[in-house]
Amino acid sequence: MSILSAEWTALLYLVAAVCFILALKGLSSPKTARRGNLIGAAGATLAVITVFLSAKLDNIPLILLAIAVGSAIAAPISRRVQMTQMPQLVALFNGVGGGAAALVAMLELGHSDGPWVLVAVVFTMLVGAVSFAGSAITVAKLQELITTRPVVFPGMKWVMTLAAVAAVVVGGFVVATGSTAWALLLLVLGLAVGLLLVLPVGGADVPIVISLLNAFTGLAVAASGVVLDNVLLVVAGTLVGASGTILTRAMASAMGRGVSGIMFGAFRGGSTAGSTVQSDRPVRSSNAEDVAVMLAYAQRVVIVPGYGLAVAQGQHTIAELATTLEARGVDVDFAIHPVAGRMPGHMNVLLAEANVPYESLKEMAEVNPEFKNTDVVLVVGANDVVNPAAKTSPGSPIYGMPILEVEDGRQIVFLKRSMRPGFAGIENELLFDPKTTLLFGDAKDSLTKVLGAVNAL
Amino acid sequence: MDPITLLTVIVLTVFVGFEVVSKVSSTLHTPLMSGANAIHGIILIGAIIVAGQLDDPWLIAVALLAVALATANLVGGFVVTDRMLGMFRGRKPAATSKDTTK
Q: Is A331 noted as a catalytic residue in this protein?
């Protein structure tokens, strides 16, 4: 239907674009984040209604059916997914968005003329395909369908370079000829580049890659806006591309690494390869009752949760332990490392799900000076983010990564599954420190025992 | 759009994009990424425009696939972000809702 004039259409798209900017702005603060997201959703709804009222469209019943199918699949999954699996879901949605952009550009190939529009078609197809294939690999890695270790084979660097060069050359042919056959080959090469780009990335770095691919999809959408001469797509896509780039850099710097080191580190042998050697140096281990006494008679306790807590699904138990200790007059805070969990901010979401108020979640810069005045630091399923080697041993792979300075605490309790080193595969000197106590076992079991013992006191 | 107008829009948008997220605390990195992910689902309107212009049944099928994928990105993205953010609560309501702690 063409109910709306071109001017009205442009104005409504402008309103939608402003909504997206306000959404990102709102998402930058905990107080306004939820409202920001709703503003974004409202903008998207407005834009979709506008397109139906302004463009001359055939096949409307089929389009509505496809929208219904897409919603019927995505909405229930989004509502039901376990919060620990949420990174995979975000990656999946990002991938299908990239795939959609690539398909849109390919279908527009026949209607496009002018070299710049054809370049935009090629760019959208290539980047969309890279994002689709790359996201598929990140989902497989996070879901542990394939190994989380870097996958590298001899000569991979050359295969990768070859695929990238071939993609650019074929892209050139598409611009020159406008042929669909070349376009299909371009799509295949884009998928290959996406696979080769993400396979060598180690499990711990996958979240950064998701963020990077998110920015890629944004750029593909922006280019599709050039193809379709649609300013809203240009603005929304560029916005995501730009903010996604900043976000990726922020995440990488929180891990003390550069983005290129994460993407190409495996080729240089400097990646998170990880060892699984078990140490046999003596440590002081203890039982749940002793730990309960330490916690219950402390003035101030800081809990450092790590991915091990999330894996064991122990976030509800630890929240209950914190509430119980607070009821006894102990001052309890959570110290959240920027990369605790599987993605930056993931731990905050997991603890928020367990009803830990966000005021109790302290960021690294805020909590580090407070460790000196902390009686007991309880480290649950975290290792690398509290490893002093990041400050003291320049040869270590995590050297330079900002850490939580738990070694300043008066006493330290580690809840660990075993003496195996963390993801980065470096031994933690802190485990052998005289003021450290270890409690071995599954995080959730150990926490349940400690909670029981505290209640029995 | 003429190329210069287009370039102007893109450059200004890049600066806006940099600016709005530059001071985000790491607490909100994940929801922000998820929210930005939802926003690029707006490729849906591109997919709708394309699907509405085609006659060939096979091409229509491809376009409808794009519509469904884009919808999944858009709807799923906003829903999952909202769910995540719904969990960020202040101290008061958290103290009363003990029933959700399994």
A: no
Q: What is the pLDDT of residues A152-183, one digit of tens each?
A: 888 888 999 999 999 999 999 999 998 889 99
Examine residue A141 and state whether it is found in any structural domain, yes or no.
yes
Tell me whether residues B33 and A71 touch, CB distance under 8 A: no
Please tell me the distance in Å from A289's CA to the nearest CA on chain B: 22
Of B21, B49, B101, the CB nearest to A28: B21
Of the candidates A280, A384, A433, A445, the residue annotated as catalytic is A384
* H-helix segments, A229-272: 231-254, 259-268
- What pLDDT does residue A434 have? 85
pTM: 0.80
How far is A137 from A255, CA to CA, in rounded Å?
Answer: 22
- Assess whether A232 and A124 both reside in one domain: yes
Residues of A with CB below 8 A from B86's CB?
34
Residues in chain B, total: 102
Domain tally, chain A: 2
Do A105 and A178 lie in one domain? The reply is yes
- Residues A222 and A341 grouped into a single domain: no
The two beta strands, A361-363 and A376-380, are: unpaired
Based on the fold, state whether residues A146 and A178 are members of the same structural domain: yes
Judge whether A2 lies within some domain.
Answer: no
Q: Report pLDDT digits (tens) over A286-345.
A: 888 889 998 999 999 999 998 778 777 888 899 999 999 999 999 999 998 877 776 777
Are residues A247 and B102, on separate chains, in Cβ contact within 8 Å?
no
Beta-bridge mates of residue A334 = A303, A361
- Mean pLDDT, to the nearest integer, of A47-67? 94
